[in-house]
Amino acid sequence: MLNVNGDAVLTTLRTLAGFGAVGSGVCRPALSPADLAARRWLAGEMEKIGLRATIDAVGNLYGAAPGADRSVLIGSHSDSVPTGGWLDGTLGLAYGLEIARAWMEAHPGAPVGIDLIDFSDEEGRFLSCLGSRSFCGDLPGLPAGFAEDAATTGLGSAPPIRLDPQRHRAFFEAHIEQGPRLEAAGLPIGVVTGIFGMRRYAVRFDGRADHAGTTPIALRRDAARLLYRFADACHHRFRQAGSTDSVWNLGKVSLQPGAVNVVVERGELLLEFRDLDPVALDSLSAALAMLVDEFDGQEGVRVSLEEAGRLAPVSLDATLQGLVADAADARGAGSMPLPSGAIHDAMVLARSVPTAMLFVPSIGGRSHTPVEDTRADDIVLGAHVLAQAVFTCAESL
């Protein structure tokens, strides 16, 4: 059994946390100076352990094992949300760097290698999972603003790094859970069964602007008042329509003309819901459409619905899940199967290559905030578990 160095993993994580550090958190949006500095540092670390590092025009950083004609690919992302934590994405990269080092040390020049990839813009400054979409050939064009920003970064015009099905036989991503389930269960390892699909909608409310001081309440066509009632009804109806795993968020409200002395003429509510079960997603969509029909015309306000985006749920590879669970058992680490409610690059990769994810607990379930943290013992244990799963996979190729 090959062993990885837990202290090396922690050192890599702490070094990456210094790029774009803001207090205990980080600010490393895609293509920012801090993001690019972190990638270039990581490229140097890849080269030190013998990987051949390249960065393409979208910012994907890839370390290839020389001499290998097939490989297990490990990856995640080093970009962050504007006020993010120190482990989101970087955990998987630190694991991958150390696992690749241990494998190359034991199997120099072997035909089977461990490759590492740091995907660009997972967090969606320009487009969610932009780098992994590009890697999988699922990026028809660059989003608005990306080319202009990239032109100032020195990335150049290197050809896109692409998934090679003949070489990349499996993909593993390790990540902090970003939720409370593992901590609540008292378990250090999560074996991810799949990644939630998502539906996003815009609900629009068209009323009439009037003087807020002179128009009687009963005569108003107040778009805001109906929007608030609609939002409350959504919570009740979604509980009935969704599954026990369904989650939803009414995340953005805009009101026009936006003056305290004018009755609101137009309102817009942006919402999303997520679930691993496509039947549950369809049920939630139907419940939303029914609510729109019920509210349309009430209090003289027209209500309309427009889909703003969707992602299909993805199930991860059962065989690779078994390798992660077996590796946890071999380490005496308790594990549990659980879905991911958050979007990850693994969601994109899973459509093209057998894919697995491992979670370690998030303290308090917190993430996307500077207080994001995981116990050092859990970080190190996760590295050992992922290493064993990856080594077993690589030895079978």
What can you see in these coordinates?
- The protein is α/β, with parallel strands linked by helices and 397 residues long.
- The protein folds into 2 domains: 273 residues, 3-Layer(aba) Sandwich (Aminopeptidase), CATH 3.40.630.10; 115 residues, Alpha-Beta Plaits, CATH 3.30.70.360.
- Helix content is 34%, strand content 25%.
- It contains 11 helices and 15 strands.
- Strands 3, 4, 5, 6, 7, 8, 13, 14 and 15 form a 9-stranded mixed sheet that branches. It has a 4-stranded antiparallel sheet with strand order 10-11-9-12, covered by helices on one side.
- Strand 1 and strand 2 form a beta hairpin.
- The two termini are 17 Å apart.
- Its cofactor is Mn(2+); Zn(2+).
- Homodimer.
- GO terms for molecular function: hydrolase activity, acting on carbon-nitrogen (but not peptide) bonds, in linear amidines; metal ion binding; N-carbamoyl-L-amino-acid hydrolase activity.
What's the helix and strand layout?
Blueprint lengths: L5 H12 L3 E2 L2 E2 L6 H16 L3 E4 L5 E4 L5 E8 L12 H17 L5 E8 L10 H6 L10 H5 L17 E9 L4 H5 L3 E7 L1 E10 L16 H19 L5 E10 L9 E10 L2 H18 L6 E10 L2 E2 L2 H13 L4 E6 L4 H5 L5 E6 L15 H20 L2
Parallel strand pairs: 5-6, 5-7, 7-15, 8-14
Antiparallel strand pairs: 1-2, 3-4, 4-6, 8-13, 8-15, 9-11, 9-12, 10-11
Helix pairs in contact: 1-3, 1-11, 3-11, 7-8, 9-11
Family: Belongs to the peptidase M20 family.
Organism: Azospirillum baldaniorum
Subunit structure: Homodimer.
